[in-house]
Homoserine dehydrogenase
Amino acid sequence: MHETRVRVGLLGCGNVGGALAELLLADGDRIAERTGMVLELRAVAVRSLSRPRAASIPPELLTTDAQAVAADPDLDVVVEVIGGIEPARTLILAALGSGKPVVTANKELLANCGTELFDAAAAAGRDLLFEAAVAGGIPLIRPLRESLAGERIHRVLGIVNGTTNYILSQMAAHGASYQEALAEAQSLGFAERDPTADVEGFDAAAKAAVIAHVAFGARVVAGDVDREGIGAIGADDIVSAHRLGFVIKPLAVIEEVDGAIGVRVHPAMVPAAHPLASVRDSFNAVFVEGEAVGELMFLGRGAGGAPTASAVLGDLLDAAHNLTVGGAGRTPALRAVPRRSIDDLVSAYYLTLEVADRPGVLHAVAGVLGDHSVSVRSMEQEGAAEGARLVFVTHPALERDMQACLQELHALDAVRRVGGLIRVVGA
Amino acid sequence: MHETRVRVGLLGCGNVGGALAELLLADGDRIAERTGMVLELRAVAVRSLSRPRAASIPPELLTTDAQAVAADPDLDVVVEVIGGIEPARTLILAALGSGKPVVTANKELLANCGTELFDAAAAAGRDLLFEAAVAGGIPLIRPLRESLAGERIHRVLGIVNGTTNYILSQMAAHGASYQEALAEAQSLGFAERDPTADVEGFDAAAKAAVIAHVAFGARVVAGDVDREGIGAIGADDIVSAHRLGFVIKPLAVIEEVDGAIGVRVHPAMVPAAHPLASVRDSFNAVFVEGEAVGELMFLGRGAGGAPTASAVLGDLLDAAHNLTVGGAGRTPALRAVPRRSIDDLVSAYYLTLEVADRPGVLHAVAGVLGDHSVSVRSMEQEGAAEGARLVFVTHPALERDMQACLQELHALDAVRRVGGLIRVVGA
């Protein structure tokens, strides 16, 4: 087989970059035999030459001058695994500007500056590939962009943050509180010391924006995404969910309704029989609903150095192939699609209220719901300290109406606390 | 966006061909807007012009001369959805010979004549794409060939036959017997009147051969696949499996062990917590174990006209793109890899025996197992009509040794019946 030599420059050498360098250095012969592509690692830009991660890399490849790597005319492809907006953005623009395709794992950058970067790639006639930016090692971007290029996709549901899935799985499996499960995730390295990006949904929102781009060709930025964290989920919600036949999952929902795109991130009640319900621990999964293809799910490891490096390697081979035959692969057209506000969402809801245990309370609550056209599918009352806990599941209702209910319920004398409001998805 | 016009010839117009024609005719504008590709359906070869499936297709497109469509120089791409070996083989060779890429859904043909067809495609410098041949609408072939091109894949486990998964799911859910579940599947159209190809594993074996080709670059034909049907699974096996923490699933197993490729199809005991265990009814799923990527699963509808047509459409867009930029996409190198016989398999086994209920029986049975180095992990005894049923789960043992045990157990006086021998996979 004819061999193609591809000179690779690597920007960043953390978890992912280190794993990729190791793959290229240790496994290059096998990759060449299988694919006909010789991937030569020629330069690795690191922040400091003395960092331990760089130890297994031949010292002559290391440099602290990332800008020189990005612009180097003797490289064929650049991989960016630094993360964050700058200097990654400037470096990627420099690489594309000098005619090199770029592979990146940087969801944050794509979700904030995607349009600028894709325009630069198109102007250069070069690939900007990003399989690793969403759901780590799971092949998702290429199937959506290529295998499903002609498919009319209705909705994508993703468990795209392993930390929050791990926390909610631990709460469900062991009855742990949110704080206990978070502390355990932190001690195991599944959650950062400052867990905000994960538990408040910022990480998932960036990935949701990238999915909206790939699945619907929609220009969506991270700031457009309706976002809710998992911090308000209590152990009692987990128990109630189980009794009602649901599992609480941290979801990204990207859907097209009447020509508008809704993108949101929040915990959701998923029916126990739904394929997403059995996606546990730190696994990621993305569930796709299409007109012709029906239901699909992609499951795997959403994070970690080696799985993410595997996705980068797949892109690297793709970029190398495209470079040899014509410059760039297919890029679906991006559209300015109207955004659908979460206020217009129609969903069933799970709602809990802690109330005084006295006659007339249910009547008052039901009055508020009825006034806003929210109809109740089921209601259970449980004893609680000096009162009762009411657990409602509604029929599909309008988010705007539901939020108006919450306002009025807060104001009711007999309502001591409005607990979780959790959307039902996939029923 | 620049538009590319692609003239498509369709060979066959059954479930899949009809659904594809409808997609191209009804949805062409949307596909063109999204992808920049105008897919013009120019000819549809049918067996008879009067068949109802062809009714929604403009009559001027219909022809009974498939050979003329395959060879037509005014077409750009040919889609083959006739199925079976001939005339599909001759038609595909003619289309490739006249310089046209071919998209096919024909697992049987690929699993028997794959080498000849891929050589013809390589000689022509044209694509032969076959996403729809395995697991219907699930994007599997492209992720394996491209996203995971550099990955060291260890094993692929597939539920690739919806009929047998449906039958075993019904047995598990409702305690139905094999015959009852089969009859129900037939009445719902999930099983053919002659179910041999599904229940004896021929369909899954062809798909397993195609997976071996794509995931390992191995030249494997359908006849190389070790194959066992599901007909021997009894309702009591389903009950025992559940009690032992397993679910019985119809699996295709393709693995590389010490440089040799094992390919087999048989029912298997899958741990209840394994992602494949919750793949129910007629869903298909393929589970991939790789060195860097870890565990992946692809789930979806493995059959049906619309999902399969969706996969064909994805290939059609890919072939059209490749044609415009360079002729053909990437094709991994095929290798002549040594085959690993199932005799060399090391697996845990589930085994049931119906025995006379008298002292010394277990001693005799344990003697046979011990003589062949088969060590028992658990044993349960249940009362049975005029005797007892022994349910064993072994520690990992050699298939060859296990088969020798079966021979000797058959010959034991006290053993009335040797029941299921089911391999444990995924534990």
